[in-house]
Amino acid sequence: QHISEKRKVTSAQIQKFAQMTDQNQHTEVRLQIAKIVGDRGLIKKYEKLKKDHDKAGSLTGPLRNTRQQLDKELLSKAFDEIGNARELMRAL
After folding, report:
1. Nearest to 83, CA basis, from 2, 32, 7, 3
2. What's the confidence (pLDDT) of residue 6?
3. CA atoms within 13 A on the CB side of 12
4. Is 80 exceeded by the pLDDT of residue 5?
5. Less Cβ around it within 10 Å: N or C end of the chain?
6. Rounded CA separation 1/21 (Å)
7. Phi/psi of residue 82, each to 5°?
8. Do residues 30 and 44 make contact, with C-beta atoms less than 8 angstroms apart?
């Protein structure tokens, strides 16, 4: 049985995500992580969340709840797929 090597996210990427988080681009960072993980469903959901967020002008209660649900899914996928997921999550 072959165990595939987990992907690593570069420290430059992690730094960029941390900067984006500092600039309040929380949903965008999560979208980028979903792309790294390669989960089409999550990518679509984060893209929709981003659109709804832009439309609303802020992250309303229901949107925040949606993001929290997506984050749980994203976290478990990231820890499955990414070797240095813990480091990556510190950027959020």
Report:
1. 7
2. 85
3. 0
4. no
5. N
6. 39
7. -115, 125
8. no
